[in-house]
């Protein structure tokens, strides 16, 4: 019964940028960070400037969004703790909280995809093709690394 609230807390922390405390700083090659791949695309100076502007605007928006919802996140965390520590398990309350948190994560995911789409629009068709090739290579390496790590 404790697993759901703990899972929700973990998902919430990850959704808000937590969970990057790996010994290598979270840069393990299987993440969503595409900056290394963009460097390999031979962007023009104008494209680099556009990318930088987009990233800066997104970073500022994320910081203000996080600050605006900080008290809400704290309230959700407190609610999770109350539900976990309650004498009786209130499935309806847990589901309501889980749905709220899921909707918020969906909103964050949509915003992220919107930004990635905007970045892709800066690329030429040739750069997009090269990006897809690099992404496929990265996924293959990631899958091989995961298989090796998990003994598959």
From TrEMBL:
It is found in: Periplasm. GO terms for molecular function: unfolded protein binding. Pfam families: LTXXQ. Keywords: Periplasm, Signal. InterPro entries: Cpx_auxiliary_protein, LTXXQ. Gene3D superfamilies: 1.20.120.1490. GO terms for cellular component: outer membrane-bounded periplasmic space. NCBIfam families: PRK12750.1. Belongs to the CpxP/Spy family. This is P pilus assembly/Cpx signaling pathway, periplasmic inhibitor/zinc-resistance associated protein.
């Amino acid at each position: 019964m404790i697993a759901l609230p703990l899972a929700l807390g973990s998902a919430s922390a990850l959704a808000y940028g937590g969970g990057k405390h790996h010994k290598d700083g979270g840069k393990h090659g299987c993440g969503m960070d595409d900056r290394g791949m963009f460097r390999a695309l031979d962007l023009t100076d104008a494209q680099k400037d556009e990318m930088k502007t987009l990233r800066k605007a997104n970073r500022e928006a994320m910081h203000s969004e996080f600050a605006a919802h900080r008290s809400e996140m704290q309230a959700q965390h407190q609610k999770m703790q109350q539900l976990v520590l309650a004498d009786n398990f209130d499935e309806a309350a847990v589901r309501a909280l889980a749905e709220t948190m899921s909707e918020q994560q969906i909103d964050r995911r949509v915003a992220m995809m919107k930004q990635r789409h905007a970045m892709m629009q800066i690329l030429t068709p040739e750069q997009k093709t090269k990006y897809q090739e690099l992404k496929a290579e990265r996924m293959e390496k990631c899958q091989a690394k995961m298989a090796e790590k998990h003994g598959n």
